[in-house]
Amino acid sequence: PLTPSVSPEAGREGKACPREGIILPGAPAPQTGPSFGRVSNSLPKGPDRPTPQVHPSDQDDSLVQRAEHIPAGKRTPMCGQCNMVIRGPYLVAMGKSWHKEEFTCSHCHSSLADVGFVEERGSVYCERCYEQFLAPACFKCQQKILGEVINALKQTWHVYCFLCTGCQQPIRNNTFHLEDGQPYCETDYYTLFGTSCHGCDFPIEAGDKFLEALGFTWHDTCFVCTVCSTSLEGQTFFSKKDKPLCKKHAHTVQF
């Protein structure tokens, strides 16, 4: 929070000097990961195929998709893998049609016909391979992220791990501010640490120019003569009862 400077005594002159805002600006809107499907499915259990560990926050925004089975019909689409005509039943996934036997994990080559998969940069992976080799780890809980990824403070986070320090709600891709290295949503930041302009009563937001005078903080455009509204930024000014006055009106106005 800002600390007001010592104000000139009433009737004595002072000089207001503009300062750059020291409120930490919010980081850019966190980016999210690739836009993937939202239907969750786990791999078959077995000694050589462990079920991926799903974080609670991944259940609502999972990257895992499932291929749709289409029965044989009059339509004969082209396979997205071999570019050959498909005759008989086929799969539909990622906007393409596939021979059932050719829709496989790009890493381990296991069939993805009946299990969940994740698309990454045009390739498809089973859940196990994605979690083991591609999924980023959450900075807070250190578990792999199988859902929406929040990129903030040079780290990756689960949606429900990147929280406002005040209200403990997910910040998601909203603007946030830092105080002592901790993230706060805009509402809590201005409630807890915000400074209001003494001239207009609106908050002094990140990036705003402001100055400190008469024991208060002002937007640079709000520090004006109480009588004629002449800007006093960088100018000699006088005060009576904490009201700023230009030199012209300092000795002619009574409050």
Structure, briefly:
The chain has helices at residues 127-134, 186-192; strands at residues 14-15, 18-19, 68-70, 90-93, 96-98, 117-120, 123-126, 149-152, 155-158, 176-179, 182-185, 210-213, 216-219, 236-240, 243-245. The chain is mostly beta strands and 255 residues long. The chain has a 3-stranded antiparallel sheet, with no helix packed on it. A 3-stranded antiparallel sheet has the order 2-12-13, with no helix packed on it. A 3-stranded antiparallel sheet has the order 3-4-5, with no helix packed on it.
Polypeptide structure, described:
It contains two helices and 15 strands. It is mostly beta strands and 255 residues long. The chain has a domain of 83 residues: Cysteine Rich Protein. The strands form six sheets. Strands 1-14-15 form a three-stranded antiparallel sheet, with no helix packed on it. Strands 2-12-13 form a three-stranded antiparallel sheet, with no helix packed on it. β6 and β7 form a beta hairpin. It is elongated. The two termini are 32 Å apart. The relative contact order is 0.19.
Keywords:
single chain, metal-binding, three-stranded antiparallel sheet, 255 residues, mainly beta, Cysteine Rich Protein, cytoplasm
Detail the topology: elements first, then pairings.
Blueprint: E1 14-15, E2 18-19, E3 68-70, E4 90-93, E5 96-98, E6 117-120, E7 123-126, H1 127-134, E8 149-152, E9 155-158, E10 176-179, E11 182-185, H2 186-192, E12 210-213, E13 216-219, E14 236-240, E15 243-245
Antiparallel strand pairs: 1-14, 2-12, 3-4, 4-5, 6-7, 8-9, 10-11, 12-13, 14-15
Subcellular location: Cytoplasm
Organism: Sinocyclocheilus rhinocerous
GO biological process, one term: heart development
